[in-house]
Design goal:
Layout (H helix, E strand, L loop, with lengths): L1 H13 L6 H4 L61
Length: 85
């Protein structure tokens, strides 16, 4: 099971990502991100030794908007469409 997990992570890390031309022209290198559908199932857990996990790459996620939220112009569950304030 661990071999399959490692192979999946390695594949998602080293494959060439599909990205728009506008993102490819930026100065910072693109970090590939994988997407998967969550499934509820039993997962066997086994620990057989001690070790340390060190990430190959770390990423900082930044918001696109800076500032404080001063007003929320909709109620939870309300239908909204583009242009609503």
């Amino acid at each position: 099971m661990a071999i399959l997990m490692f192979a999946g992570i390695a594949w998602s890390f080293f494959r060439e990502p599909d990205r728009p031309a506008e993102l490819a022209s930026t100065n910072s290198p693109a970090i590939p991100v994988g997407v998967a559908t969550a499934k509820q199932m039993d997962f066997p857990v086994s620990l057989s030794g001690l070790g340390t996990v060190t990430p190959l790459v770390t990423v900082t996620v930044k918001t696109q908007i800076a500032g404080r939220i001063t007003k929320i112009g909709f109620e939870e569950g309300q239908m909204v469409k583009e242009g609503d304030c």
